[in-house]
Amino acid sequence: MVAISTPVPECSVRLRKLIRYAATGLAQWWLIDLGACILATYANQECGRLLHGTWDAQDQAAIGLFATLNLDLSGLWVGCASVIVTSTFQHTRMPAPKLVPAFTSAKDHQIMVVGGAGYIGSHMTKMLSQCGYKVLVLDNLSSGFRDAVRYGQLIDGNLADQALLEQVFSTYHIDAVLHFAALSQVGESVREPARYYHNNVANTQNLLDVMLRHDVRCFIFSSTAAIFGEPEYTPIDENHPQRPINPYGRSKRMVEEMLADYDQAHGLRSVSLRYFNAAGADPEGELGERHNPESHLIPLVLQAASGRRESIAIYGNDYPTPDGTCVRDYIHVWDLCSAHLLALEHLLADGESAAYNLGNGKGFSVREVIDTVRRVTGKEISVEMQERRAGDPAVLVADCQKARLELGWQPRFADLDTIITHAWRWEQKNGRSW
Predict the structure, then answer these.
(1) Catalytic residue among 42, 119, 133, 248
(2) Domain boundary pick from 43, 62, 90
(3) pLDDT (tens digit per residue) in 143-187
(4) Which candidate among 16, 24, 228, 336 keeps its CA 20 to 30 Å from the CA of 245?
């Protein structure tokens, strides 16, 4: 069993999701009839975390809800008793059982992660592996790193190579595909639109067509908040008008539209996850963010803190925000991966296609990010004021209630200090090595 020093959110989320359905009355009668057998399975897995020190306040609150539901709790107590016995045997150094989600036999599923050598994809492969999935990574290493693929097998290849895709899908029994292999630089997309439409749209269609020929019909798409364009209101929910203002955003919207058509025509089910600003690093310090060139605010500020950069620029200080600088919604990469995992399990359980906005639900200004880096690192950071950049909205914040309600997603690292602490640990350890 893989040792994990920080709580992995997925397992406890499932228990809270089950409880929430009961609390709202959507499935209360079913839980009462089958509570003894189902809750025993869940409790056996989830209560074990209590004895191992990873039970958090949300989990405790979830257990408390059982008392208000008037449900048959025999399954819960059977599960608790089972865990107590297991814990007793552990003190005699007998091996502990591996906790695998009751409704998903992860070890029987092979998951392809396209773009698994990149920032988010590499974290995703680690999470999938820790949850028992077999992982296959396809990446052309144009922006990813070979040494970031520490979990699963790497195939060095491109989605434009249909012969390679046919070979891969013929060789491996793939159950689902997670797609992270997009070009994502807004300015570059304006200068080179054809490259973005070819890679982000045409290559994705190549992949979908090969999936259909091999009867693989579960697809998780890493989309973007750029599909919305200039915000008409914030927080931005899934119903916000989609008017992308650059080729990057338009390419992602095209893929979402293509996925809807493929579902209707071929039954290929998908979940599109639109996130704002991924940030942070693996809580265990094994993986982190590295782009060449770097364009994201938090790693740029941390490079200034570590001495790899002389200063950091603030583009505009006269926006209608509390301190005059732009406000953005930062989501920890590990929380982002947990949403992808929940979306995957939703599809593997025959769930319908869907789209979700992801974020921490609150924004932080550019000045707040810089001040937090100063506090976390203890370093002084030189700031240069620059003119506003064209097309920068004052505020971009996500409304992620739909993902919370339907997937049971609960961000664990929404605090800016935590996001920056994890990223700073990575910068200190690895920043000068590339």
Answers:
(1) 248
(2) 90
(3) 888 999 999 999 999 999 999 999 999 999 999 999 999 998 888
(4) 336
